Amino acid sequence: MCEGDPVNADWEDRVTAAWATFDDYAEQDAADFRAVIDALVAELPPDSPLGPFERACAWDSTGHSDRAVPLYQEALARGLGDISGYKGRRAKIQLSSSLRNMGRAEEGVALLSPELVAASDELDDAVRACLALCLSSAGRDREGLSLALGALAPHLPRYQRSMANYARLLVEDEA
User: What's the whole-model pTM score?
Assistant: First the structure.
């Protein structure tokens, strides 16, 4: 955590609990949900990267990619990935998705492509899924389909090798 961050298990638990109630809010109550997140963020030091990250998530989840993008960027610039590699990776996935929603898919591709060779974790498939969407929105459907099939192949009860080969051939054929 950042020097002086009052973040602890209790704070994280309260953030998790707040997000667990997200679906209880009706669309017209989105501002109320964002206020809950803002109250938790207010407990953090002003320079904490966790604040803009949580606020970005709240704006994004309530349909405001335009408000979320600069907050995700701020969180990453403040070193979110340094204090939590997992949240840093989530921020990149979510930022890429928001950029795509705003018609800036190539920026999403540039942000997520390095994640394909980053340390593996449970977000690997989410990286590939979001990158596939960004590639498709950027007019690179074969690359996107290749990524999606490649991510799906290991989860199939059969045909893993065939699907992995088909995924590879989609992009090799272009070369």
Answer: 0.91
* DSSP secondary structure, 29-97, as one string: GHHHHHHHHHHHHTTS-TT-THHHHHHHHHHHHTT-HHHHHHHHHHHHHTTHHHH-HHHHHHHHHHHHH
Domains defined along the chain, listed by start: 9-105 (1.25.40.10)
Inter-helix orientation angle 9-20/30-41, to 10°: 180
Around 136, how many Cα atoms within 13 Å sit in the side-chain half-sphere? Answer: 13
Q: Mean pLDDT in runs of 10 for the chain (175 residues)?
A: 60 96 92 97 96 98 97 98 96 98 98 96 96 97 96 94 94 75
